[in-house]
Amino acid sequence: MVAHGLFDATTGDGLVPRKSWWSIVHIDPWLLLLLVILVTGGLFVLYSGADRDMAVVEAQGIRLGIAFLVMLVFAQLDPAVYRRWAPWLFLAGLTALAAVLLVGTGAKGAQRWLDLPGLPRFQPSEIMKLVVPMMASWYLSRYYLPPGFRTITVALAIVLVPMAMIGLQPDLGTALLVGSAGLFVVFFAGISWKLISAFLGLVAIAAPLMWFFGMREYQKQRVLTLLDPQSDPLGAGWNIIQSTTAIGSGGMEGKGWLQGTQSHLAFLPESHTDFIVAVLAEEFGFVGMMVLLGVYLLILLRCLFIATTAQDSFSRLLAGALTMTFFIYIFVNMGMVSGLLPVVGVPLPLISYGGTSVVTLMAAFGVLMSIHTHRRMIGA
Amino acid sequence: MSWGDFKDVAAERRLFQRRALVMLLLVIAASGLLAGRMYYLQVVMHDTYKTLSDKNRVQVQSVAPPRGLIYDRNNVLLAENRPVFSVTLVPERIDELDRTLERLQSIIDISGEDLERFRRRLTEPRRPFQELPLRYDLTETEIARLAVVRHQMPGVEVSAELVRYYPFSELTSHVLGFVGRINREELQRIDPVNYAGTNYIGKSGIERFYEQALHGEVGYQHVETNARGRVLRVLERENPEPGRDLQLHLDMRLQRLAFKLLDGRRGAIIAVEPDTGGILALASVPGFDANKFVTGISVADYQDLSTSLDKPLFNRALRGQYPPGSTMKPMLAIAALDSGATTRNRTIWDPGYYQINGNGRRYRDWKRTGHGWVDLNNAIAESCDVYFYDVALEMGVDTMQSYLSRFGFGEDAALDVSGALSGLLPSRDWKRAVRNAPWYPGDSVNMGIGQGFMLATPLQLVTATSVIANRGRWHEPHLLREVKGGGEASDLLPRGDHSNINLKDPEDWEYVVNAMEDVMHGAKGTARYAGRGADYRMAGKTGTAQVFSLEEGEEYDADEVRERLRDHAMFVGFAPADDPRIVVSVIVENGGSGSGTAAPVARSLFDAWLSNFGEGGPVKQVTAIGGEG
Fold this sequence. Notes:
The structure holds 2 protein chains of 2 kinds.
Chain A: H1 21-24, H2 29-49, H3 54-76, H4 79-103, H5 124-141, H6 149-168, H7 172-189, H8 193-214, H9 217-227, H10 236-250, H11 261-264, H12 276-308, H13 313-337, H14 356-373
Chain B: H1 9-44, H2 46-57, E1 58-63, E2 70-71, E3 77-89, H3 97-107, H4 112-123, E4 132-135, H5 140-149, E5 156-165, H6 173-176, E6 179-181, H7 184-189, E7 200-202, H8 205-209, H9 211-215, E8 219-225, E9 231-238, E10 246-248, H10 252-261, E11 267-273, E12 278-285, H11 291-294, H12 299-307, H13 316-319, H14 329-339, E13 348-350, E14 353-355, E15 362-364, E16 372-374, H15 376-381, H16 385-406, H17 428-435, H18 441-448, H19 458-469, E17 480-483, H20 489-492, H21 507-521, H22 528-531, E18 539-545, E19 568-575, E20 582-588, H23 594-613
Parallel strand pairs in B: 2-10
Antiparallel strand pairs in B: 1-8, 2-3, 3-4, 3-5, 6-7, 8-9, 10-17, 11-12, 11-20, 13-16, 14-15, 18-19, 19-20
Helix pairs in contact in B: 10-23, 14-16, 14-21, 16-18
């Protein structure tokens, strides 16, 4: 048996894994390898997307270095620590979110940052991407699974309250990610399909209400633009028209690295942040897109494997939810850039230029590695 | 751990595994959806998006042809194209023009005039997305400062443009004319395709006359632009066909000398090569700096030029219409001989005045004491007015008008000199139509000495004198000598349609030329001081044009009249007399007498041309200019 093959790891309790060097340092080598491949390739795309601005690549490299360190630190902590701390982190997070709504700073009409004296400026909503699934997992894992109706109601409250607070900032993208992270916990916990159907039905009813009462004008505009980008080709539709043009013109094999005309000629907006996948699609074509999707899928598979082999419910729920959140990033971002979904501020995970999401994402992988490498040695 | 001990651990694991499987399927399905979407965009719709992308970035731009250069006969460059850096704005790409202008003003020096000119151009019709210049001639510092902030200001460009430059500035301004930005009327007239990339057009002179040849044919390039319209790469280029380089008959050395000779005065000099009609020098003094007009002259500068008493913008050589005075006498002498109004032997008595039929108004001779007995030779050499009063009356206006018109008076006979005026060759019909009066004999008398209604430009005088120098052969004056790089001048030059003047007795030419030689070399010749000491024979005629007419019997002294009311000094002549290689006409406004002021100027030109500049002329030292007379 090859130790730590991608899908050959031990299945948890009962069997004793060989104590390898990797589990001593609490790192999952497969996940690490895949992440390194993704991040390295991502830097090349970023160099092109930022129009050969080496400063951007260097900044991102430093950020990634920090993020990897954060991942390592998070991997060292025992999952039990996260479980113990979850309620307190959650309370602190809610307080911070409330503070953001009251005294936060930000730009473009949204308050996202908290600038506390003595602390570095930070986005509480970003931290909630980790804390909300932790809290939900903590809460649900205290009960028999599948959970009862009342337990689910409380769990949903745990998810929806911070989500609503983030949505009020307003930060639709993060609210979506935080909310889905929490809802995935509830799903993994075993919420009955009946309730899921009822919930989806509720969403179907709530959607039009949201449209008329809950959404801001620019958010409505984004949805409208998705339905018909040509209605405002130079305004709201510009991004989608240009990004789909970039992707489509890439063809099967792409125009070649640094040869993308859409992105290098400044037609493509946000070419090194949220729309970076269009650069990749234009320059590396369908083949490049499939490679990227493949790497993402391998990471997801590895993470799902980690989740299913976790030793206790808390770890399973948390690992599963974090994995699926990562997938939501990918799906929402690619869906948005390719014109399947409305424009929501969700970066392409680990490739888009930008600080906080890289760190939280790597922290999540740290948690996953922690879950996989802190195994109780029953019978050892 | 409160509940964990009682939980069905295995069941929970199985539950999670089922749910994980569902999620795995969801992930695969969603990934499949993304992959399908990508396949649709990148493979199925690839052609559509490729076209869109190309359309996005590829634009067709016109490439202005470089304007043809202009050389003098010795290949001295008279008009060239210099790269000039300017800030241009494309108003269509600028959201807030005022703010952009304000910002630019804080970065580079923009005068109120620049702004005013820019705003004026903004209101004029133009091609969409055409760049409008704001400031020309940026310094390197300014270019650098703009480069730093340029990306923040879409629609603002620093563009290098080839701009016409006239190295000799005012020396050539009245010959070459100048180019300037295409204006409203010109926009209607030009071929929009060929001028698609051109901002300048010939406004006057050679630049205007040979505009088509100098301009060339427009080229095209497919360029890649970014979303802000900035050109990043040239993909494909069809080069423009450059404008033709032109060589003129002009000799810059002679031209420079002409300016020097008229320095500080107002006047005009035209020198022509009689064998070809090529214009060797064409000076209208003072000139102006044509370079100022190229990029748009400031209002203040233009005000200065246009209101100056010296009228630097006025091309005296082509548009100055002066009473030709006695310079007309050689042509009238030909007319008188050929028409039989007089003979070579006929003499008359000049008492100092002339009276029609021996009574009535006295027409004064310039010499109050009279010339005594004079024949036609004396009448020319000494410029006797009375003799010409007499033959003029004898000939009558019809005969004079007919002969003079064959010398090119009353029309613009030049081939490629744009803007030349026709002067005025009066006739009975003209006087009836314009003055609503019959032609009086007194009008003919006045016409006999080139006064009265008669007006001629220096160009017409040199043309007529050239016909005499050529003994009746016509070579219309023109500037173009050769089209460089193959091609005949005759391809571009209009054909002259003047027929040679054939006299009943061709010896009359020699007689008149001989009389003109006596003007220069004769014992009593009016320009004998100017002709003194030359080792070649020259022929000429002095003239003095009255700026205002004198009442009968009124005496005046030139010194007492305000300077600007003094007579215009005139001279026409050619040299060498028997084989002319240069013909000149000189007018010095308010210069006093033709013999004292204009003739020495001509002598200097003759000397320079025949001994120093001219081809095959005697290579001898130029003798000193003859004494003032």
